[in-house]
Design a protein that fits this description.
This protein has 569 residues and is α+β, with helices and mostly antiparallel strands. Helix content is 39%, strand content 13%.
């Protein structure tokens, strides 16, 4: 398997290959000796004078045909005395960074690579001034892309609700230039998390696979049999070898092949049963370029996140349907979860767990009451009683609405609030983590434990059902008085009560379709909610026009039907 240690179907199409040429052609330009120093024959006074004229002409004109962030660029020059900023060492550091921008899946637009290539040999003061201003604007854009994301947050989808850190690119760049700390400034921009750095290495590995031709798809749609007779076994061996699951030149026996298939399935969130059915075959036939783009989309999500999650936090990977409690940078606890189905997608949010509620009631959301429960009630008026759901505020001897004519009710005429009482049938199970948020998404137990055995666990209405809620609660309470036995007694007591955490814990609901596991191996997951494609599109990963232009310049120089609605939110 492809394994990148933390620092520590289709053949690729030609558009992708043109895109992959971008880093090389930019590097060829920026490594050119001609950029070592400006021409000594151009007087510095002339450059300074021309710089003023160039800055004055920015509105509506840009520089050398390139749009420039006028107000921001002018503010930097004004703060630093309206003098040229890009002396040799500083300029080389920026040029090196820009040359590596594509390696981080940053957008070429805004970095002015082609225009700077045309100005590689400044012949006049105007050329030197234009290059200086373009470098300043490129530095701003590069810093913003790495620090806040290369694409607008809209590309992350309507369910992205995690605010990034505040970052004033103008102020940060100005101070770095003023203090002579530009190299340190550049190195501080990207996320420092080992996951990000390792995914960067993986991106280069998969792009190298694309350049080498990727891998051929395994033909057919029916199951590939590991029986020694299936004619597709050579194609399977080649596919596993291409991604490193089998050593090059060693086909191995069927036992070795079976182990390699299981490893592949594990790294792709599939049942590791060595059976190559439709889902495993589909994963094999995702081509190398698609995998590289998938990694790029996840790098972009990292850039939009806060740089520090805190010393202790919960991270839920919605695509992997797993939860991890992280303490001081180390995984302290890991468990499976169930997430929202495709109609009720779990959002990407940050919240704070403040307490553990024992034996919680479930206040049924009006949308679920009208859209899902009312049709059932029209067929079976005893549905509420069967699921221990009462009408809030309805006194007397009819708490379950047995005397209500449900056939007369509708979405416009539903004057009831429903609540499922605590107990073994309750959709929230016996424990709920309190984490106030506008989306009413919580971590909680569930009475439907069998779903955790599934490889794909998108079954809820958006909330996160936890496989081991008791152990998670014990760790979060972090109190000797609340050990496993005490938690069991609290549940057995039957009453609803909330125990506050001594230390509230942040929780992040994230969406990683490409990540690195504890062994340093790249993992991929199905894009359950279809959230990768908009990010990939916004990153302009297949932008042949920019690459071609630069190259020319360089060359010249489920919900389950068997489960009742009480299976949860």
């Amino acid at each position: 398997m492809i394994q990148v240690k933390a620092p520590a179907s289709r053949q690729p199409h030609s558009g992708g290959m043109r895109r992959l040429a971008f880093p090389l052609c930019v590097a060829l330009f920026f490594c050119a000796p001609a950029l070592a120093a400006p021409s000594p024959e151009i007087p510095s006074t002339a450059v300074a004078s021309q710089l003023g004229e160039t800055l004055n002409q920015l509105p509506g004109h840009g520089v050398d045909g390139e749009p420039v962030a006028t107000a921001e660029v002018r503010a930097i020059y004004a703060a630093l005395g309206n003098t040229p900023l890009w002396q040799l060492e500083r300029r080389q550091a920026l040029e090196t960074a820009i040359a590596g921008a594509a390696d981080q899946a940053l957008r070429a637009e805004g970095l002015h690579g082609a225009a700077l290539a045309r100005l590689a040999h400044p012949a006049t003061a105007r050329d030197v001034a234009a290059r200086d201003v373009l470098l300043t604007d490129a530095a701003l854009d590069y810093a913003s892309q790495l620090r806040r994301g290369a694409a607008d947050a809209v590309a992350l989808g309507p369910d992205w609700h995690i605010a990034p850190d505040g970052f004033d690119a103008v102020h940060a760049l100005t101070e770095a230039l003023r203090g002579g700390q530009f190299a340190a400034f550049l190195s501080s921009l990207a996320p420092a998390d080992p996951q990000y750095r390792t995914l960067l290495t993986a991106l280069q590995r998969y792009r190298a696979l694309v350049r080498a031709g990727g891998w051929a798809p395994i033909p057919g749609r029916d199951e590939v049999k590991l029986d020694g007779r299936d004619p597709r076994l050579p194609a399977l061996r080649n596919r596993l070898t291409a991604e490193g699951y089998l050593p090059i030149g060693r086909d191995g026996d069927l036992g070795t092949l079976s182990l390699a298939v299981r490893a592949f399935q594990t790294r792709h969130g599939l049942d590791a049963d060595a059976r190559i059915g439709q889902r495993t075959l589909a994963a094999f036939n995702v081509d190398a370029e698609q995998r590289a783009n998938q990694i790029a989309a996840n790098l972009e999500r990292w850039r939009h996140l806060p740089r520090q999650f805190g010393p202790r936090y919960i991270a839920v990977n919605l695509a992997d349907q797993s939860l991890e409690l992280v303490e001081e940078g180390t995984s302290a606890f890991h468990t499976r979860v169930i997430v929202g189905d495709t109609r009720h997608q779990s959002p990407m949010i940050r919240a704070t767990v403040t307490g553990v509620t024992f034996n919680p009631p479930w206040n049924v959301p009006p949308s679920i009451a009208v859209r899902e429960m009312l049709p059932r009630l029209k067929r079976d008026p005893r549905y509420l009683a069967a699921n221990d759901i009462v009408i809030v505020g309805r006194g007397g001897d009819d708490p379950f609405g047995l005397r209500v004519d449900w056939r007369r009710m509708s979405g416009q005429n539903f004057p009831f609030r429903l609540q499922q009482r605590p107990g073994v049938k309750n959709s929230l199970g016996l424990l709920k983590l309190e984490m106030a948020n506008p989306w009413n998404v919580y971590l909680h137990d569930t009475p439907v434990k069998q779903l955790f055995a599934r490889a794909q666990r998108g079954f809820s209405h958006g909330c996160i059902r936890v496989q081991q809620p008791g152990e998670l609660a014990r760790r979060l309470l972090d109190d000797p008085a609340w050990d496993g036995d005490a938690i069991a007694r609290g549940i057995a007591a039957g009453d609803t009560h909330t125990v506050p955490l001594r230390r509230p814990v942040p929780v992040y609901l994230l969406y990683w379709t490409a990540f690195v596991d504890a062994d340093g191996a790249v993992n991929f997951r199905d894009d359950l909610y279809g959230r990768d494609a908009p990010v990939e599109l916004a990153l302009d990963l297949n932008a042949p026009a920019n690459a071609t232009q630069l190259q020319r310049t360089a060359s010249c120089s489920e919900p389950n039907a068997a489960i009742t609605l009480s299976s949860g939110g």
